[in-house]
């Protein structure tokens, strides 16, 4: 390499000052996520060897139980985050309730709340298709030094101080924002270092890709059906092309680079859609807006919603601004 490429470690230090709160704390947190990402990446890469190394439920040669990758990813992230003196509470898609950290220790100063989808796109693990991890970070709203409460977790997405994802794809990337744009880092697996490969990522204003599970078409609301037909019509820059991986992280990542819209609408089978507001939609919405894109529940901004429960689901439309606005327009028109 003739050009000097910045590592994630260097980038974190250089950009500390742009963060509005204590910079050292956030650096520690991103560093913990970077470490967990490498550990999970190592495990995800071995997924194809499961018949050789032992499947979930089996006992391995050391007498340890083999775990499903989503359970394992969950544990690795939680362990890594717990071990830094910075996080006071974690909620995960894989856990029924939130986890309180250091709640017995009145001296603790930990201020941050982390919400994670440890393994997104888990149905793709067994077939060697990209999966991801999504994270979302808030400052607690209850007093420091007391045990966290549900209030700390049920904050609107607008309160996020950082969010990002890791995509375990043809290469592994960590993409995140602290509210000052979106940057992407690619892992060099030979030396275990992330390099800044995608500085200042931006959604093209419009695109030609729509991503939706069309198997659910007949169950979609009329406005969504109308928008899908609009995507398929021959006129101007249309028809658009359809691409759907079934891992939100991977679909979002591709659409951010190429221009496109991702949709998981509500349907007659799932009244609030499928995706989780706290673990999936809010972090992706923060990234989308920081990358000049948009994220909506079909009517308005995702990040303005006031969550009412930890595992709440919400319809999700996210991507290139013009495309999301068009989808909203069709949804509004169908309701007239
Ligand atoms: P998870 O694996 O964390 O449960 O998330 C899967 C999500 C999302 O990543 C993906 O886009 C969507 O579910 C796919 O759902 P369908 O199979 O219903 O299309
Ligand atoms: Mn998910
Ligand atoms: Mn998951």
Entry keywords:
eight-stranded mixed beta sheet, D-Maltodextrin-Binding Protein, domain 2, 336 residues, alpha+beta, Fructose-1,6-Bisphosphatase, Chain A, domain 1, binds 2,5-anhydro-1,6-di-O-phosphono-D-glucitol
Write a short abstract of this structure.
The chain is α+β, with helices and mostly antiparallel strands and about 325 residues long. The protein has 9 helices and 13 strands. Helices cover about 30% and strands about 20% of the residues.
CATH level-4 homologous superfamily of the largest domain: Fructose-1,6-Bisphosphatase, subunit A, domain 1
* Order of strands, widest sheet: 2-1-3-4-5-6-7-8
Category from helices, strands and their pairing: alpha+beta
Question: Total domains, how many?
Answer: 2
CATH class of the largest domain: Alpha Beta
Molecules bound to protein: 2,5-anhydro-1,6-di-O-phosphono-D-glucitol, manganese (II) ion
The number of helical runs is 9
Question: Can you tell me the overall shape?
Answer: globular
**Assembly state (oligomeric):** single chain
- Mean pLDDT comes to 92
Strand content: 15-25%
Major β-sheet profile: 8 strands, mixed
Pfam families: FBPase (PF00316), FBPase_C (PF18913)
Pathway: Carbohydrate biosynthesis; Calvin cycle
Binding site for Mg(2+) 2: 117, 120, 280
InterPro entries: FBPase_C_dom (IPR044015), FBPase_class-1 (IPR000146), FBPase_N (IPR033391), FBPtase (IPR028343), Fructose_bisphosphatase_AS (IPR020548)
